[in-house]
Amino acid sequence: MFLVAVTGGIACGKTKVCEVFQKYYDVPVVNADAISREIVEPGKPAWKKIKDSFGDEVFNEDQTLNREKLGQIIFDDVEKRRILNRITHPVIHFEIYRQIFKYFIRGKNFVVLELPLLFEVNSNLINYIYKIICVVTEEDIQISRLIDRNSLSLTEAKKRIKAQMSLDEKAKMSHYVIENSGSQQDMEDQALSIIKILMESNHHWKLRGILLASAFSIIAGVAWLLNKKYKFLT
User: Fold this and answer.
1) Which CA distances in Å does 19 have to 78, 97, 206?
2) pLDDT value at position 230?
3) pTM, whole model, 2 decimals?
4) CA nearest 38: which of 82, 98, 83?
C-alpha cells in the first residue's frame, strides 16, 4: 500500500478532489480536518488542553469549541498558533497513522491523505508519501470562496490565506497540480487523469514485498536466537 497526499491552499477545493477518488474508485480518504474536529469534542484531552491554554472565551455555551473565535485568535498571534499546533498535531498524526494501518490491514492498494498543512507542519509523515497532489485556484476565487464559506471579512480572509505557504511554493513541491478555478467537471477530469496513473502503479506491490521481506528477516532472526538459546533444531 502507498500513500497519496492531497494538499493546497485554504478554500481551494481539496475535499472536492478527494471526493472524486471516493466516488469513482472507492479509494479510502483520511481527512486531517475531520480528525482535527473530532479530537476537540467536549471532554477529550485536546479539548481540555485548549481550555487550559485559551480559556472559556473560545468555547460556546454548550462547551463545544468555537472554531471561528479560536481562528481569529491564532491567525492574529503566531505564538498562540504554535501553542494550538503543539496541542493538536500529535493527536492528529496519531489518528492518521491509526487509520493508515487500518486500511493496510484491509489490503487497500493506496490511501489518500487530505493534508492542508502538509508542507507547513514539521512531520515525518511526508517521508512516507509516494505522490503529492496540490490543489490550487486563482486568488480572487480563493478569497471569494473563503468569505462565503466562513462568513469572513475581506481582511480576515486574506489574513488566513497569508498564514499558509503560498500556492506557488506548494505546487513546486508537488508531483501533480490540479487547477480548480473552473467548473466541477474540469476539476474532476484532472483528478481522474491522475487517479488513472495511480491505479496503474505497482508501487503497492513493491512496498508489500519490502515489508514481507523485512518481516521474514525479523522472524528468521528471532528463530535463530531462540534456537541458539534453547537448541530447538539440534
Assistant:
1) 32, 21, 27
2) 53
3) 0.84
4) 98
pLDDT along the chain (234 residues), means of 10: 94 97 95 96 97 96 95 92 94 94 90 95 86 97 96 93 94 97 97 94 57 56 60 50
Report the pLDDT value the prediction gives residue 232, as an integer from 0 to 100: 47
Residues 6+ apart with CB under 8 A from 176: 131, 132, 133, 134, 194
- Assess contact for 40 and 89: CB atoms under 8 A: no
The span from the CA of 49 to the CA of 2, in Å, is: 34
* CB neighbour burial string for 183-194, b if at least 16 within 10 angstroms, e if fewer: eeeebbebbeeb
Specify the residue for cell string 474540469: 186
Q: How far from chain centre, in Å, is Cα 186?
A: 24
What would the 3-class secondary structure string for the chain be? Answer: CEEEEEEECCCCCHHHHHHHHHHHHCCCEEEHHHHHHHCCCCCCHHHHHHHHHHCHHHECCCCCECHHHHHHHHCCCHHHHHHHHHHHHHHHHHHHHHHHHHHHHCCCCEEEEECCCCCCCCCHHHHHEEEEEEEECCHHHHHHHHHHHHCCCHHHHHHHHHCCCCHHHHHHCCCEEEECCCCHHHHHHHHHHHHHHHHCCCHHHHHHHHHHHHHHHHHHHHHHHHHHHHCCCC
* CB 163 within 8 Å of CB 82: no
